[in-house]
């Protein structure tokens, strides 16, 4: 596995590229040196008010987008009642995560080549617009559209929030702040159902689950516009055609429909259409073909790829991406379906179901803080990646044993175990990427991590709905007087109105069985994450090596350049200008 220090720092200077200008050495004229752009050691000012206000505004933006992923969990029954659209339940969460995941790679390129501040602020504006649409939506399709718009904006906020922190905080000090980032992300994700339940149960109604984003987002916008001034990037002007090529339009053209086809197949399979239906088969085939085309584009056009082969082939990056994919899927299965278990099986109100998930929040906070301190102390993040899925698997396995009328100590303890495991390592993937990649590639590496996080959440939220719908149909198919399709299509809060009193216990047992199978599936995902953690390299955040690019440059300076340096020609005034070597 090699020495932990080798090739393991994000503080590596960026090689000369068409977008960043010539490399600037550390020290005089380098990052943090006289005459050069300020580096993390220069910008790290934890004793100043501006430093903490910048982090506050940054974390508020993260809080909103993470909250928005799950706030609909407890509001879904009321939303489905309002729109009479139980069949759309999976899309209320997946539409948001679909556009987030599909556009995450695009924002990775945007943050690499363009102004971080205005890219981030534009993302916040788009997110706010989507929230306003959701709050005012008169129909289910309009609501889903608003969720998709908000999801697109959230993609830029996720990547941008991390890119704001990187130049402010040196790598050895970053684990604690990254744990704070993860803690905010985790708390807001788990608090989403509680906040959603509070609004749903109040006179404000579920629409304020989305209106609440507007004033908080406005604070972030105002503060960032007037008080946040990130280090300027050295850029060279380029024609519009070259700027468009940088954003991998061909790859994006294949990536987005591939994700849409996959989620449509999972959403419709076994519910709207049989799994053997030609529509479902066609969607899976199209997904495979489009995904293959996307991969071919990334390989044949590495200089403009959204996922450059040189990045994804790095061992720690590859397994961090898959680790994050499995953990995100496992987490969202809990966050979405634990409140539904309380509302259906235990007949709790939307507000109470959110309150009952607090054990998940409290344990997540505790373990996030412990993880941040421990990682900064020992310098290695792999132990956290091993503990996270191991503890989660235990908690989720226990959750799968829940029955109707289970003692309070059971569902409190099982959630506490699951949340403690989750907090130990849900953000370690991005820390690994910052450690092993040169600075020029960090934005795209982080985009890959968040892409897998959002895609995993979108896919497995939909998978959870598929499990729920299919098992309800199969368990209730032979019961006289009950129409399984009607149960699936009805809102959860309307169940008691359409099910005869003498059959209600049968339906509740079917719900309990289906939901606990979802928790069992979440445990399987945790085991998948554990296998990925076992394959990680042991790299130290304390030993800042020169990095792969810098090491290569010592032996052969020409080989240290990124593909953008040697392959991307600028066509201007009828002649080709290739960046000088």
Automatic annotation (TrEMBL):
<feature type="transmembrane region" description="Helical">
    <location>
        <begin position="205"/>
        <end position="228"/>
    </location>
</feature>
<feature type="transmembrane region" description="Helical">
    <location>
        <begin position="144"/>
        <end position="169"/>
    </location>
</feature>
<dbReference type="InterPro" id="IPR011701">
    <property type="entry name" value="MFS"/>
</dbReference>
<feature type="transmembrane region" description="Helical">
    <location>
        <begin position="354"/>
        <end position="373"/>
    </location>
</feature>
<feature type="transmembrane region" description="Helical">
    <location>
        <begin position="181"/>
        <end position="199"/>
    </location>
</feature>
<feature type="transmembrane region" description="Helical">
    <location>
        <begin position="249"/>
        <end position="268"/>
    </location>
</feature>
<feature type="transmembrane region" description="Helical">
    <location>
        <begin position="380"/>
        <end position="399"/>
    </location>
</feature>
<feature type="compositionally biased region" description="Polar residues">
    <location>
        <begin position="7"/>
        <end position="20"/>
    </location>
</feature>
<dbReference type="Pfam" id="PF07690">
    <property type="entry name" value="MFS_1"/>
</dbReference>
<dbReference type="InterPro" id="IPR036259">
    <property type="entry name" value="MFS_trans_sf"/>
</dbReference>
<feature type="transmembrane region" description="Helical">
    <location>
        <begin position="514"/>
        <end position="536"/>
    </location>
</feature>
<feature type="transmembrane region" description="Helical">
    <location>
        <begin position="411"/>
        <end position="433"/>
    </location>
</feature>
<protein>
    <submittedName>
        <fullName>MFS aflatoxin efflux pump</fullName>
    </submittedName>
</protein>
<dbReference type="GO" id="GO:0022857">
    <property type="term" value="F:transmembrane transporter activity"/>
</dbReference>
<feature type="transmembrane region" description="Helical">
    <location>
        <begin position="445"/>
        <end position="468"/>
    </location>
</feature>
<feature type="transmembrane region" description="Helical">
    <location>
        <begin position="89"/>
        <end position="111"/>
    </location>
</feature>
<keyword id="KW-0813">Transport</keyword>
<feature type="transmembrane region" description="Helical">
    <location>
        <begin position="321"/>
        <end position="342"/>
    </location>
</feature>
<feature type="transmembrane region" description="Helical">
    <location>
        <begin position="51"/>
        <end position="77"/>
    </location>
</feature>
<dbReference type="GO" id="GO:0005886">
    <property type="term" value="C:plasma membrane"/>
</dbReference>
<feature type="region of interest" description="Disordered">
    <location>
        <begin position="1"/>
        <end position="41"/>
    </location>
</feature>
<keyword id="KW-0472">Membrane</keyword>
<feature type="transmembrane region" description="Helical">
    <location>
        <begin position="118"/>
        <end position="138"/>
    </location>
</feature>
<feature type="transmembrane region" description="Helical">
    <location>
        <begin position="280"/>
        <end position="300"/>
    </location>
</feature>
<keyword id="KW-0812">Transmembrane</keyword>
<keyword id="KW-1133">Transmembrane helix</keyword>
<dbReference type="InterPro" id="IPR020846">
    <property type="entry name" value="MFS_dom"/>
</dbReference>
<feature type="domain" description="Major facilitator superfamily (MFS) profile">
    <location>
        <begin position="54"/>
        <end position="541"/>
    </location>
</feature>
